Inverse folding.
């Protein structure tokens, strides 16, 4: 039996993860769940999956939560530190990190250090501290398996291959809702429009990242760390159907791809059962019904977040941490109406220009850069009334 912790169980990836676990059957057991605001869903999940402990971060009235649970022995935590201790529990085999944002970093690092398998959807933790995360993998018995469909595709394409025979990784991007929108109409984009992704149902932060294409930029950085490849070897292709989840091109000119309908339960299940493949016959990719698969180059001018991500990656020295923190603040500000769509890359650009690397890039140093960037951005936002 695999004992699993799901951090961020009430989110899009968290809900899909529990669906996968339920379908996998009794060999997969939920021992802990964590969420932040969605008390109703956490109660429902707890009563259904019967974990022994749960976290509801910052819950004002945990006793109200207790009264709604069928099992009175469930331990309830409200402190953010509990995310880490839950992930490191002695009985835990696998942690699904489906938290959104930098909050996921410590859980990823400490679960790896404790020798757990970490199935990571929380790409922000890899972007902001990729070296630390990969050091934690190298220095422990822990294993890191990506849930992002692109990186899951790359992992699957690389099975049985030698890393030195890889020429390029080619990450596919749907292009988001504004793929065909002319640049001179970007100033009028609203949060409501940006939240309508053509292919994927996801949480609000990643949906906005997909509209700016920052999501693909973050994935380039994630791929660099996960697969230890130079930025020049990681390319992006726009593929609006989201059926090919990524390609690996080899030195002899062969290209491998992984395909399936866009459904996150496939990469989630692969991460949970890795290295095995178990049946999942509820997702059927019928190639006869897929009319066409198309590919085109990304437009770095209309989507400047792509270039910012490559720039942060090639500069290193804490720039990806700055990029990630500034992006989190910019997306939050766009969603609450403080920033316009075009001002998202502007805020990230000025944050990166303002940053000057100094000091060590250990955990303390990374968290300081993250914190300073957030404070600096919040101050900047005082001068950013929405036009
Ligand atoms: N959605 C996708 O298809 C997809 C695909 C690839 C990668 N990812 C990545 O997966 C991660 C999660 O994405 P998502 O779309 O599932 O996001 P989401 O729907 O917004 O879910 C985020 C989850 O994290 C919880 N959470 C947020 N802040 C927390 C905190 N401080 N303490 C404890 N829990 C907290 C939320 O709890 P409440 O809901 O209770 O507030 C929720 O359960 C992101 O890094 C994203 O980039 C997502």
């Amino acid at each position: 039996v695999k004992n699993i912790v799901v951090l961020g169980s009430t989110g899009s990836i968290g809900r899909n993860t529990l669906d996968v676990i339920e379908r996998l059957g009794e060999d997969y057991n939920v021992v802990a769940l964590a969420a932040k605001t969605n008390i109703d869903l956490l109660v429902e999940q707890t009563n259904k999956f019967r974990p022994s402990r749960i976290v509801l971060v910052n819950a004002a009235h945990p006793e109200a939560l207790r009264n709604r649970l069928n099992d009175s022995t469930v331990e309830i935590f409200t402190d953010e530190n509990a995310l880490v201790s839950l992930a490191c529990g002695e009985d835990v085999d696998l942690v699904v990190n489906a938290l959104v944002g930098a909050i996921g970093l410590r859980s990823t690092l400490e679960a790896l250090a404790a020798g757990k398998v970490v199935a990571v959807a929380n790409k922000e933790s890899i972007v902001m501290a990729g070296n630390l995360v990969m050091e934690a993998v190298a220095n422990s018995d822990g294993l890191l398996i990506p849930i992002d469909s692109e990186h899951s595709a790359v992992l699957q394409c690389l099975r049985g291959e030698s890393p030195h025979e890889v020429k390029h990784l080619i990450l596919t991007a749907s292009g988001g809702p504004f793929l065909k929108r002319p640049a001179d109409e970007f100033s009028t984009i609203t949060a409501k429009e940006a939240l309508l992704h053509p292919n994927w149902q996801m949480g609000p932060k990643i949906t906005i990242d997909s509209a700016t294409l920052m999501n693909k930029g973050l994935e380039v950085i994630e791929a660099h760390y996960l697969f230890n490849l130079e930025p020049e070897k990681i390319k992006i292709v726009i593929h609006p159907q989201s059926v090919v989840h990524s390609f690996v091109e080899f030195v002899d000119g062969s290209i491998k791809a992984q395909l399936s309908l866009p459904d996150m339960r496939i990469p989630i299940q692969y991460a949970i059962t890795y290295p095995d493949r178990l049946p999942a016959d509820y997702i059927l990719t019928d190639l006869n019904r897929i009319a066409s698969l198309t590919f085109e180059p990304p437009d770095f001018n209309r989507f400047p977040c792509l270039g910012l991500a490559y720039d942060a990656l090639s500069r290193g020295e804490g720039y990806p941490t700055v990029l990630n923190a500034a992006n989190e603040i910019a997306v939050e500000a766009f969603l609450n109406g403080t920033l316009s769509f075009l001002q998202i890359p502007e805020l990230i650009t000025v944050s990166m220009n303002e940053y000057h690397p100094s000091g060590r890039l250990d955990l303390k140093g990374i968290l300081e850069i993250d914190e300073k960037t957030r404070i600096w951005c919040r101050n900047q936002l005082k001068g950013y009334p929405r036009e």
